[in-house]
Amino acid sequence: MSVKIRLARGGSKKRPFYSIVIADIRAPRDGRFIEKIGTFNPLLAKDDENRIILDTDRAKHWLDHGAQPTDRVLRFLDAAGLAKRDARNNPNKAKPGKKAEERVAEKAAAAEAASEAAAAAAAAPAEEAPAEAE
Q1: pLDDT tens per residue across span 1-43
Q2: Is residue 126 part of a domain?
Q3: How many angstroms separate the CA atoms of 56 and 52, rounded?
Q4: 80 CB contacts (<8 Å, ≥6 apart)?
Q5: Which runs of E-coded beta strand occur in 1-134?
Q6: pLDDT at 117
Q7: Which long-range contacts (CB under 8 A, 24 or more apart) does 6-11 make?
Q8: Is residue 122 part of a domain?
Q9: Which single residue of 7, 23, 24, 60 could bond 33 by disulfide (Cβ 3.0 to 4.6 Å)?
Q10: Given phi > 0 = left and psi -120 to 50 = alpha, else beta, which region is 11?
Q11: Is 92 part of a structural domain of the chain?
């Protein structure tokens, strides 16, 4: 039986509260679970000690028995010193999309054309105004 350590959502609408549970991977997110090992309240401040309550002994027990934590739970376990979470790196995420790159290229071309026109206008001799006839 494959087992996961994951979050089960509770609380009312717009007021999330999660239980950290041990569950079979085939069970629904908020459905049947084997054991509840803690809670997570995302509405509390990050430095509040009641934000994450975790039974570390039981978590260690289940990790030793092959339970796989989800990404969010792995963050909690890493903070508690029970598991190692590798930092992720996605350098392509910060790059602009194709349309944005096209807009930047068009804007650069328009600015270059405007600067060339200004340089050409400055280099051309100024035309004298026609003399007024009296």
Answers
A1: 689 999 999 999 999 999 999 999 998 888 889 999 999 999 9
A2: no
A3: 11
A4: 54, 56, 59
A5: 3-12, 15-24, 35-40, 52-54, 68-69
A6: 83
A7: 6/69, 6/70, 6/73, 7/40, 7/70, 7/72, 7/73, 8/33
A8: no
A9: 23
A10: left
A11: no
Q: Which domain holds residue 61?
A: 3-80
Residue 120 backbone phi and psi in degrees, to 5: -65, -40
CB distance 60 to 37 below 8 Å: no
Tell me the one-letter amino acid at 110: A
Model pLDDT, residue 134? 62
SS3 content of the chain, % helix, strand, coil (to 5): 35, 25, 45
Tokens 């002994």: give the residue: 57
State the total domains in the chain.
1
Q: Residue 21 and residue 35: Cα distance in Å, rounded?
A: 6
Residue 129 has pLDDT above 70, yes or no: no
User: What's the number of CA atoms in the CB half-sphere (13 Å) around residue 130?
Assistant: 3
- Residue 23 inside a domain? The answer is yes
Query: pLDDT tens across 72-112, in order?
Result: 999 999 998 888 888 888 888 888 889 999 999 999 999 98
